């Protein structure tokens, strides 16, 4: 097998527990082929560790091409493929044990498969987050037998059409050593590597490798990591990165910062596995992106700070907060080796070599034509307003492909049935439009628990809409994930993804419509509040003796500047025959509303102008309060009334705001359907793995 530290530990665990105690039958012959990164002199002669455990290294192949870039990795695999056939022809092994997911392991598995040698792959089915995933799964398809470490890995192998009878869930072999290692003498090891003055739990172990699919970013992250470690002023053991593409640049960063000569650092290229176990077991924490931080270190409970994406898909089975891992031993119980040996003994070398795949039944034969390949990734967006119920198919770019509108029913039963009906019809239409629906996002008025997908209680505009679980019926009907949030929050999400808030760290959105709502983006994330009541901006009080508000209070922004408030004032004027001016008329069958008041103001009605000015001033005072409280970099006015208020709001800011916030820009949203786009963004952000 190709040899890295894990492979060495695996080999020693698998075939020998204590010196002189052999677990393999006497008729078996264990042959070791040493290839890969450990063939470099500057990365230590790992073969000495193997020989000390009474193993014969039959062949040492130098297969790694220097260069530490993508081309060198490819050339290394090619060199191994050239050299391995002669070795395998000479040794004629019955079974080849291949461990892990290194690129040199892929060369070994490829050679063995093409030369009709049975392959036992250890640690298949796992997911990490780099090119290692592709290599690991490629080895899985070449292997005849599989030893996996976790239940999830076993399920992944079955999903990959591997024969369940040839899969063993054993646990991680290295855990057999790890779980018995912590009680051994360790202070002498700590002193040897870190100095005589270092105490247990008072030092850091750092191990960071390049991410081959994003080399530039991983080098920058390594530089920031070293800066942070220097600032910690703690004794730190820094291991050199592996030889993947980008490692040369990372070493340059270490030397540029003087890590090898820094008094707080010990920079080393290799630590024997038994000693490394003790060092991480008694460290204050481990930091980096090595898989051992997720796997092996979990056996000891040492806190691990995992950086970047290299292990983003790795199964942790642990409590995770801000990428900090704590102890939970899902990778083994200390009894993997006996299980693997029993599995090896059960292999019938006389059975046919050709492996069989267990393909699941397929219900429908979906043609992979060009239209299917080029389908548009989309979301179903639902907007529950006081008057209308709208459903739209929204593409990843924010294009509304198709929109459906119905009057919002007055009762719960009618409303939920109409939502389901419209969504089912839209999903069916999406297939014809070549849109792949990724999920459903719902924007609704009222207070919403987005974690559970429940409307806690709604505004008076939407009746029978309290304690309503929207997620379950939609998810059960459409078999899609469902997100739900308040309409104001959705407007802010729309601006963050598609509008003028894109790329901004802090901004506030104010919706001016039938009511007044809003959403707050702080440090790129939406603020919900402890009881999901954040950003109820319409209910900021701007006058102690103002008009009554629908919330039960008085003097709120909504009581002055909402569409309902303007409609109330318009009716008063109309009842007193003070609304209509020359050039205006209101049909008898048409209700007087906010638009009539705006029209009258434009035509010179002084009383209408005064009402609008008061409403805009109230909104402006609310914005001033927001500027003084949140200090955002931008305020976005959204909704049908925004353009009528913008100039008054800016005047109020100039007159009332502190000088330090008067330069904050206030703009009118250029999004046509912010509620729908915000609902869609909850789905689309998830598909790009943005935290929501």
UniProtKB/TrEMBL annotation:
An N-acyl-D-mannosamine binds at residues 447, 459, 487, 536, 539, 558. The active site is at 487. CDD domains: ASKHA_NBD_ROK_GNE (cd24060). InterPro entries: ATPase_NBD (IPR043129), ROK (IPR000600), UDP-GlcNAc_Epase (IPR020004), UDP_GlcNAc_Epimerase_2_dom (IPR003331). Its EC number is 2.7.1.60, 3.2.1.183. GO terms for cellular component: cytosol. Pathway: Amino-sugar metabolism; N-acetylneuraminate biosynthesis. GO terms for molecular function: ATP binding; hydrolase activity, hydrolyzing O-glycosyl compounds; metal ion binding; N-acylmannosamine kinase activity; UDP-N-acetylglucosamine 2-epimerase activity. The keyword Cytoplasm applies. Keywords: Allosteric enzyme, ATP-binding, Cytoplasm, Hydrolase, Kinase, Metal-binding, Multifunctional enzyme, Nucleotide-binding, Phosphoprotein, Transferase, Zinc. Zn(2+) binds at residues 539, 549, 551, 556. It is found in: Cytoplasm, Cytosol. Residues 32-321 form the UDP-N-acetylglucosamine 2-epimerase domain. It catalyses: an N-acyl-D-mannosamine + ATP = an N-acyl-D-mannosamine 6-phosphate + ADP + H(+); UDP-N-acetyl-alpha-D-glucosamine + H2O = aldehydo-N-acetyl-D-mannosamine + UDP + H(+). One of its GO terms (biological process) is UDP-N-acetylglucosamine metabolic process. In the N-terminal section; belongs to the UDP-N-acetylglucosamine 2-epimerase family. In the C-terminal section; belongs to the ROK (NagC/XylR) family. Homodimer. Homotetramer. Homohexamer. The hexameric form exhibits both enzyme activities, whereas the dimeric form only catalyzes the phosphorylation of N-acyl-D-mannosamine. This is Bifunctional UDP-N-acetylglucosamine 2-epimerase/N-acetylmannosamine kinase.
